[in-house]
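re: that chain from earlier
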Amino acid sequence: MDVVLDPVGDWLFDEAIRGLAPEGRVLVVGIAAGKIPEIKVNRLLLRNISVVGVAFGAFLGLDSNLMRQQAASLDRMITDGVLKPQMGIRFGFDDLPKAYERLDRGEIDGKAVILLD
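^ sequence. v structure.
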C-alpha cells in the first residue's frame, strides 16, 4: 500500500506500517482506540516511509478561508476526473429511516447522501 489513512491507532497502526510499500505514507487522522501507537524511527528509515499527522481542524482557526479553498479544490478535482466519489444513493431527509435500514442490510454501495433541502 502506498498510503494508509489511520483514524484508529493502537495495534492497527502497527499493521498499517507493516503493510506499507517502500516510500509509503501513514496519515494519522485520529486515535479512536486503545493506546497511542509508537514507532521506532529505524522502521521509517529502512524503507523510506513516513508518518504524517493530519489534523485539519487545527488549521481552521488560523485561516478562515481554508474550508472554502479546500471545497473549491475538491470540486476542481471531481470536475477534472481526478477524484471519483462513490455516491451509492441519495435520500431525502424524510427517508432517513429507510436509508439506515438499507445501510444495515448492506444494500448501499459507496456513500449514502442525505439531502437536507
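The chain has three domains: 3-53, 60-84, 86-117.
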